Amino acid sequence: DAGITQSPRHKVTETGTPVTLRCHQTENHRYMYWYRQDPGHGLRLIHYSYGVKDTDKGEVSDGYSVSRSKTEDFLLTLESATSSQTSVYFCAIRTGLAGFGASWNEQFFGPGTRLTVL
Amino acid sequence: AQSVTQLDSHVSVSEGTPVLLRCNYSSSYSPSLFWYVQHPNKGLQLLLKYTSAATLVKGINGFEAEFKKSETSFHLTKPSAHMSDAAEYFCVVSAAGNQFYFGTGTSLTVIP
């Protein structure tokens, strides 16, 4: 599972409240990703990071912000949650070259966080 | 630009019969292609990947996929379906960048 954990695993919140989801990895991978999964859409990229303090937007970044102050942690924040952000959120890492003991260019995923915005 | 089209949103097969899940891709560069499986209420697991080595790729649990550049396809197959194969399957493309593009998924039902 590439040592990826997500917290919380489940959260129910109300419209307009801020929410932060955390992704933690133990294997020092440079690239980390946040996706949301919705029926009929597969997984869609929200933001990704290619190093500490280096992030970029994905396909569905509106309403979300991210931060990466340490290699091992990638935070996703919903500044003011809306019902349309009810979803399952997955964090992923991308493996690098031989130095990490894994194949090039694979993604491994965390267990997911189910977020419900009422 | 890269994209993936999974041609069937639902596939239903009988146990013991072959499985075919279809995926077409679009990529401006030589792509890496992946199939992931997601069992109900679980995370995503890598089934197999193509990264410009052999065009016929073998994965876990008896699954295979063949990269056909002329057809821009990367279909997933298995000779004999098992009940435990019932899941959602995602085809993914990545090329010349840091992003991965997912198809919308194919739900596989296996009938006993």
Give the structural class of chain A: mainly beta
CATH architectural name of chain B: Sandwich
Low-pLDDT ranges of chain B: none
Radius of gyration of chain A: 14 Å
Helix content of chain A: under 10%
The CATH topology assignment of chain A is: Immunoglobulin-like
Listing every helix as H and every strand as E from the N terminus to the C terminus, the arrangement of chain B reads: EEEEEEEEEEEE
Our estimate of the beta-strand percent of chain B is over 45%
**How many domains would you count in the coordinates of chain B?**
1
CATH topology of chain B: Immunoglobulin-like
Number of helices of chain B: 0
CATH architecture of chain A: Sandwich
Explain what the structure shows.
The complex is a heterodimer of chains A (118) and B (112). Chain A has a single domain (4-117), classed as Immunoglobulin-like (Sandwich). In chain A, 0% of the residues lie in helices and 56% in strands. Chain A has strands at residues 4-7, 10-13, 19-25, 31-38, 42-51, 54-57, 64-70, 73-78, 87-94, 107-109, 113-117. In chain A, strands 2, 4, 5, 6, 9, 10 and 11 form a 7-stranded mixed sheet that branches. A 4-stranded antiparallel sheet of chain A has the order 1-3-8-7, with no helix packed on it. The termini of chain A are far apart. Chain B is mainly β and 112 residues long. Chain B has a single domain, classed as Immunoglobulin-like, CATH 2.60.40. Chain B is built from no helices and 12 strands. In chain B, the strands form 3 sheets. In chain B, strands 2, 5, 6, 10, 11 and 12 form a 6-stranded mixed sheet that branches. The N and C termini of chain B lie far apart (41 Å). The chains are: A mainly beta (118), B mainly beta (112). Chains A and B meet through strand 4, strand 5 and strand 10 of A and strand 6 and strand 10 of B.
